[in-house]
Amino acid sequence: METIVSENNLPLFEALASNVRIKILELLGQKPMIMKDLASALGLSNSIITVHIKKLEKADLIRTEMIPGKGASQKLCTLIADRIELVFPSKGLIPRNFHISNTSIGHFTDFDVKPTCGLATKYKIIGDGFDDPRYFLDQERVDAKILWFSKGFISYKIPNYLMPNEEPEELEITMELASEAPLSNAHWPSDISFSFNGFPVGKWTSPGDFGGTRGKYTPEWWNIEMNQYGLLIHIRINGDGTFIEGTKVSDYTINNVDIRRLQWDLKLEVKEDAKNIGGLTIYGAGFGNYYQDIVSKLTYIDQKHLK
Q: Which residues belong to any copy of the HTH arsR-type domain (predicted)?
């Protein structure tokens, strides 16, 4: 989840100034919930719960999305923060802001994968079965919430909302990853390489492919012996270099990865010459232990505030 850094405190204070909204946050802290189920749990009408949800969204505490339901779409509410940091004005304080992009794991723009491989939405396998890379081109692949392959690569394009007057400080990319073993194997290391805008920014070794215990958000229809969840990986690129889980993995900094491109290219790869060729599984919202897809957070300083 995210740490909410609030420099404009009013929406946050307003969101928290309600026992009902506090109860909503407590319920969503246990699991994502459909809005009508929240209304039922709190004994409120749908119209009243909608007002509360909007205030929590405005404060960036929760996220909502429409999902298929019986007969009609339903609104799913998800808690996206587990802590709050308030920034109060003080002399000499430089305001810092951020842009956030969410990239669905099914919205990849290029790939070259080798079996074992496959994709699935939250509701079904995409294609007629596993281990056929052709289904990575199926029209349903945009709805994929889990994908896996033994070696090869997958690439994404991420929008860049940075403005000319904004000076980038740090880019953080988070995603839930694991290895890809036959069924699952917690001791199945895999070297996963990351490229950003064509720059080989670093490598992380996944310890295994985790199954046997159902992921927090993995659907019930998914075989319990298959890959269930991964680890939430943080890649940070700042003025000191590139870091994965706090360990420096390269000297590429925020200033030499072409950060001002209109769109960024992110590539995840298990290379043919890797020491540990153990595949890659990517978990999106609806699978695994973290209800998110690929999240990119760019922290910046607004130069207008420095004049």
A: 1-95
